[in-house]
Write a structure and sequence with these properties.
heterodimer, A: 295 residues, alpha/beta, Elongation Factor Tu (Ef-tu), domain 3, 2 domains, 7-stranded mixed beta sheet, 6-stranded antiparallel beta sheet, 9 helices, globular, B: 385 residues, alpha+beta, 8-stranded mixed beta sheet, 12 strands, 32% helix
């Protein structure tokens, strides 16, 4: 990782927490709550991130927050993040305009193990804004399509108006080599697609060969336990189920302590974990499968 | 790593003696070797604090440990990780943080020396070596004052082999033995201080060190708190603690965070931003895993919303085998500060004791994957199994 390489301890200025300058090159509103920011490092270098990794983004005077990459590293000229307006910093980021500066540090953490996933069928399950980090993986697979087996995407949003990346969804839907299942919890008058939680199409409409499938799941914590149950029901083993965990990362480098999960630091050991790593670790993971799966 | 180097070299160095009546003269000599001299001293109201002193007379020589550990000079409660200046339409210009000047921390107790050793391994180890910590740490010279006897009834450094005499981690260590101080150097910096002291020190008879060991052995019985911490570590690492235990402890906890704020090993921090008139700083501030908002995520989900979960997390991180393997000791140096501040009397020694009492759930010690977790110096107290 680049940050570690840049660490001559005896220098006058410490670099550990020091962000690099990046510039907003495009902004797009995705839903009422979400904007997509396309960024470029001022140095014109690439961050060289992997799908599922995150960065720390900051605005002077507002602070810093961890946000997942939502663009694929195969598209090197820029990188994208998807920001929900929930706090001071993220609201200020909604007001950024092309040309404005932000600070970035990273990439941090272990993302999706794409080398282990190569040659296998990929089953992506996204809930709500979980589509944003998964998009980095989906477009990675799209750009290196021949290296992977089947590509299945099951995406559930709460309402049609909260669906993200509608352009991408249409592109993926139209591809012969993508199998997509989109659903919403609550339909509105214009919605003609599926209605119901994400586990319904997953259960009823997705057939997989459990031995050659890797599932990548990103969504609200409460979703994980139900998705895990469905996937185990389909014959998958816990090693092949990948969950991305959200935590309150302050540093991203395993020092601030906030993201600890028993003996793991989610920012460094994760944020993407195999389900097998999480089983047997107690405490609030919210991915508990049925009782008999606990140890 | 700083600590490891010291440990390896401690064996080869000479031991000196200093007549006790020359101690203030000795302190005066040390003061010439640094920009800032931190020492135990009395505050206006008589509390013992570690603070900068200007003359040797201000230094308190008979003291129980300060409630706020001198570790705060290595990891301050607040510090800027960088500062910046902003001009409209321009990218912010990042400025170096203030120069870190050299400090001698005199009179630091062995438990706090052990805490700094732990923090060195934590902050400087792993994939990322924290250069903000490193810069501050490198400017500190530690002159320890060994205890031999417990300073108060909260002391339990024997639980994790952190005292009553420091085995490593210090630059210079003083032990008062009747009319003389035994003076040991464990680093090049310590050697330089020995040179600075010049004629005040003379070489000590090795028998003096042996005499000290005898005294430490004899003093062991005077430590009132002797939790068998290793047993608690094995049980919590093997997930052998009943959930009811954490409900019970959690129900008593006020989530005030006092235990972690006085703990010299606790190092969790939050980051804040401060900006005014075009000048700003990113600041890190101590935080506590007992605060309900500590783990609250942007989505509104909180993985440790309730006290029992936070209590388990706190105790697990302090006592689990993984902490022991990574940092060479449990996340406790037995300074006893949490005993002094916890309003609910659920400090770490009591948590460890409660875990032991509940450890009946663990039936097969021979099959325990954590059987290798043993702490030298952690001996059973009278009447303990």
């Amino acid at each position: 990782m680049r940050a570690a390489d840049e660490l001559p301890v005896t220098e006058d200025i410490t670099r550990f927490y020091r962000p690099e300058l990046a510039r907003v090159i495009a902004k797009q509103r995705l839903s009422e709550m979400m904007v997509l920011l396309r960024l470029q490092l001022n140095s014109a270098e690439t961050l060289d991130h992997g799908p599922g990794q995150f960065l720390q983004i900051s605005l002077p005077g507002y602070g810093e927050a961890p946000i997942s990459f939502c663009s694929s590293p195969t598209r090197t000229e820029s990188f994208e993040i998807c920001v929900a307006a929930v706090g001071n910093l993220s609201q200020a980021m909604h007001h950024l305009r092309p040309g404005d500066f932000v600070g970035v540090r990273g990439p941090y953490g272990h993302g999706f193990p794409v080398n282990d996933m190569r040659g296998r069928d990929i089953l992506c399950i996204a809930g709500g804004i979980g589509l944003a980090p998964l998009r980095s993986l989906i477009n990675y697979v799209a750009d290196r399509r021949s290296e992977f087996g089947r590509m299945i995407l099951v995406y559930g949003a709460r309402k049609p108006g909260e669906r993200l990346f509608k352009d991408d969804l249409a592109v993926w839907d139209a591809r012969d080599d993508f199998e997509t299942r989109y659903t919403v919890d609550e339909a509105d008058a214009d919605w003609t697609g599926r209605t119901g939680v994400v586990t319904i199409p997953l259960r009823d409409e997705v057939e997989i060969d459990p031995g050659r499938t890797t599932a990548a799941v990103v969504g609200p914590p409460v979703m994980y336990r139900f998705v895990a149950a469905e996937l185990l029901e389909k014959g998958m083993v816990a090693e092949d189920i990948l969950f991305s965990l959200e935590r309150r990362f302050k540093c991203g480098m395993g020092k601030c302590g906030h993201c600890q999960l028993n003996d793991l630091y989610v920012c460094q050991d994760g944020p993407v974990f195999r389900y097998s790593q999480l089983l047997g670790r107690s405490e609030a993971i919210e991915v508990w499968a049925p009782e008999d799966e606990r140890k | 790593m700083i600590a490891v180097e010291q440990q390896e070299r401690a064996q080869d160095r000479a031991v000196f003696r200093l007549p006790a009546e020359k101690i203030r003269e000795f302190i005066g000599a040390l003061m010439t070797a640094t920009e800032h001299f931190i020492a135990p001293t009395r505050s206006l109201h008589g509390d013992l604090v570690f603070a900068q002193v200007e003359s040797a007379d201000e230094v308190e020589l008979e003291y129980e440990n300060a409630l706020i550990s001198p570790v705060c000079f290595v990891l301050p409660q607040r510090e800027a990780v960088f500062t910046y200046a902003m001009t409209e339409g321009q990218p912010p210009e990042v400025r170096p943080t203030a120069d870190v000047e050299s400090h001698i921390i005199f009179g630091i107790r062995p438990c706090d020396v052990a805490a700094i050793e732990y923090l060195d391994r934590f902050f400087l180890g792993g994939e990322f070596a924290d250069d903000v910590y490193a810069r501050r740490r490198e400017a500190k010279t530690l002159v320890a004052m060994a205890c031999i006897n417990p300073q108060n009834d909260a002391c339990w450094c024997t639980c994790s082999n952190a005292g009553p005499v420091a085995a490593s981690g210090y630059d210079l260590q003083l032990t008062l033995m009747d009319e003389i101080y035994l003076v040991e150097s464990a680093s090049d910096r310590g050697d330089r201080l020995v040179e600075v002291a010049g004629g005040l020190l003379s070489e000590a008879d090795p028998a003096l060190t042996e005499e000290r060991e005898r005294r430490v052995e004899a003093a062991f019985e005077t430590f009132e708190r002797r939790g068998n911490i290793a047993q608690a570590m094995r049980w919590i690492s093997g997930d052998q603690t009943p959930e009811g235990l954490w409900q019970e402890l959690g129900a008593k906890c006020f989530s005030c965070g006092s235990c972690s704020l006085v703990c010299p090993v606790c190092s969790c921090f939050d980051t804040h931003e401060y900006a005014e008139d075009g000048v700003g700083a990113r600041i890190r501030v101590w935080d506590s895993c007992h605060f309900p908002g500590y783990s609250l995520e942007a989505s509104g989900f909180n993985p440790r919303e309730n006290e029992p979960e936070r209590m388990f997390h706190y105790a697990h991180h302090k006592l689990c085998a993984d902490t022991f393997k990574k940092y060479g000791r449990p996340g406790c140096v037995g300074c006893g500060r949490c005993v002094q501040v916890c309003p609910a009397q659920i400090d770490l020694p009591r948590i460890a004791q409660t875990i032991r009492e509940c450890g009946w759930a663990c039936k097969d010690c021979k099959a325990c994957p954590h059987a290798e977790v043993t702490v030298a110096g952690d001996r059973k107290g009278p009447g303990e199994d």
